[in-house]
Amino acid sequence: MKTVLFGSPYNPLSGVAARFFYEKKELALVVLPSAKIAIFNESILHGLSLLILGGLRLAHVFLRKYGFKKSDSYLSLKEYLVVHRDIRTVEFVREADELQQAILQAIGDPVPGGVRAVSCIFPHKIPVSLPIFDRMINIHPGVLPQNRGPNPYFWVLAEKLEAGITGHVLSSQMDAGDILLCEVFRFNGKLSEFGLERVTVKQLNGFLIQLFGNIDELWNNKSHQTCGNYMKKPTLADRVKYKRKSVLNWKDLCAFINI
C-alpha cells in the first residue's frame, strides 16, 4: 500500500514519518500546508522562541542544500525533502474535490494495493470523505483520549499528564477517531515543550514500526473513544503562568545547534 503523507515543512516528526515511508518505498506523495502559521498570536516570549527555532531549522535546510551538512539526522521535513528531491509534493487545498484531483494528478491512477493517508502534525483539517484513500490515519504526539488538541506538549508539562504517541483513525472531530495504537513513555518533567518534542521525535520511528508493521490487525481491533478531554490551544494567560515550559532554554538551543 502506498502512503500520502500530510505533514508540516519545519516539523521534525513530519520528517521522521516521511523518512519512514520513503525507506519502506511506500511514500507516494507529501501534501504540504497552503499557508504559513502565525507565531505571534500568543505570548511574545513563546513567539520569539518559535521564531528562533524556525530560524535554526531553516539554517539546517540551507546547510543540507549546499552540502555543508552530511549527517544522518534531519531537523525537519523540509530538510529531508531538500535531499530527496524525487519525493513529489503538492500544496493543500481545502475543497475535497480539488484536493483529490491534485493528489491524483501527482500520483496517477490509484496504485495496486490501495492508497492510505497519514497525517503527522498537519495544521489544517483534512476532509475525511476522500474516496481515493482506503484508510486515513493520524499520528498524534499525545496520549488519547486524555490529551486531544493542537498542543499536547504544553498540557503534558502544565498539567503533569502522561507523554506518548497515539495512532488513530482520522475523523471529522479533532483527535476523536478510533485508537489503533497508543504508546506512553517517560520523560524529564523539567523539560520545555521543545525538549519534550525532541523526546517524542526519538520515540516516533519505533512507534511507526509497531503501528504499520501490524496495521491490519490493529485496524480490525481498533478501540472507540467513548470520552476524552479536548485541551484547548494555550492562551496568553496559560503561557505566562507556565512560561518556563513555553520558552527555549540553553539545553534546547545547544541540542538544535549541535545536531
Give a quick rundown of the structure.
This protein has 259 residues and is of the alpha/beta class.
Care to describe what's here?
The protein has 259 residues and is an alpha/beta fold. It has one domain: 3-Layer(aba) Sandwich (Rossmann fold). Helix content is 41%, strand content 16%. It has 10 helices and 7 strands. Strands 3-2-1-4-5-6-7 form a 7-stranded mixed sheet, sandwiched between helices. Helix 1 (12-23) links the parallel strand 1 and strand 2. Helix 1 (12-23) packs across helix 3. The two termini are 33 Å apart. The mean pLDDT is 90.
**Shape designation:** globular
User: Termini separation (Å)?
Assistant: 33 Å
- In DSSP terms, counting alpha (H) and pi (I) runs of 4 or more, how many helices? 10
CATH superfamily: Formyl transferase, N-terminal domain
Main sheet: strand order? 3-2-1-4-5-6-7
Number of domains: 1
Radius of gyration: 18 Å
What is the level 1 CATH name?
Alpha Beta
What would CATH call the architecture?
A: 3-Layer(aba) Sandwich
Order of helices and strands: EHEHHEHEEHEEHHHHH
> Assembly state here?
single chain
- Helix-residue proportion: 40-55%
Structural class: alpha/beta
Roughly what fraction of the amino acids lie in strands?
Answer: 15-25%
Largest beta sheet, briefly?
7 strands, mixed
Write the SSE topology.
Blueprint lengths: L1 E6 L4 H12 L3 E6 L11 H22 L11 H7 L5 E3 L4 H12 L7 E6 L14 E6 L11 H8 L3 E7 L9 E7 L7 H21 L1 H6 L15 H6 L1 H4 L3 H9 L1
Parallel strand pairs: 1-2, 1-4, 2-3, 4-5
Antiparallel strand pairs: 5-6, 6-7
Helix pairs in contact: 1-3, 1-6, 2-3
